[in-house]
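FOLDING PROBLEM:
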Amino acid sequence: MKQAANIAQGDRALDAPIVKELVKLWRAQDMHGSWENRSDVDLLGPYIVNSMKRRELPIVGDPDPSTIRRLELFFDAVALSIEKATAVMIQPMLKMNHEGFGRMVLIGGRLVVVNKQLRDVHRFGFDSLAKLVGEGDKYVRDGVNMIRKFPSAANH
């Protein structure tokens, strides 16, 4: 019964705009067609780092390139979603040290629309697809609200 509920939640999460943007970005990265037959759930699988997987990871560690790429594409999807909602071009900027500490900002015009402090990036992920949607939607909502609050800064 619980598994059926998780599958239904996952199906709803796959229909979320942030997930659709993220899947489009991943598919656009596939230059050789090797992911063509992979489902959207399979593409998003590495984003799911539940408590069991998180416990297997060291407390301190350096993020690998694939983890950094997942982080970048997640925030790229957030940026694209904000662009669609506001018609303001959003530029993501990541500054991070080798230990996985840093900052991700999304900038529209002269305005920082999202500012996320990063730590323990080697453990980046979400407990479930629904949690990914919740976090992504929160960043999109915050970015859209910031642009609506300061439209003159965002449009210059």
User: Anything to note?
Assistant: Confidence is low (pLDDT under 50) at residues 1-8.
